[in-house]
Design brief:
By secondary structure, the chain is α+β, with helices and mostly antiparallel strands. The structure holds copper (II) ion.
Length: 181
Amino acid sequence: MKKTILFSAALTAALLAASLVQAHDDDDAMGPGMMGGGMMEHGGMGGGMGGGMMAFGHPAAAAQAGRSVAIEMKDMAFVPDSLTVKAGETVLFKLHNGGTVMHEFMLGTAAMQTAHRRMMAAEAEKGLPPHHHHMGNAVSLDPGQSASLAWTFTQPGTVEYDCNLPGHYESGMKGAITVTP
Ligand SMILES: [Cu+2]
């Protein structure tokens, strides 16, 4: 059992690395040099426990949040679609899906978003329903649902919040968080 988990973690890391190499043509939406390489080093952390530690931050308890930010999900946009936080700050995101279809709110670097988007598109092509591999950095909400997610931002740079359901990001369902030092 443990071997299987380790093997699949290694495989996932390899697939992500492959997607990252291909992802470069999509990187123009990102500021120069913000979060380039090194994102996937969390592969060695948490031992498959879904600890959610990532180079740009980690999940937190809602009580640790110094402020909350309401984000409305629409067909196909986030309102607001940009935000500035300070490195070290913990933010409680209060999410509501006011649209008519399922939406996702995923925090991640541009490279992580691209990799996740490719995976979801591949699943959709196989006729699989959207399913979720979230590590505390994302939630999916049906129409009318609400949820909250607390996150500590640890690194200056740019973090995106995107909906990676097929076609949604491409239709404009994306947001950008500037993390200042
Ligand atoms: Cu969406």
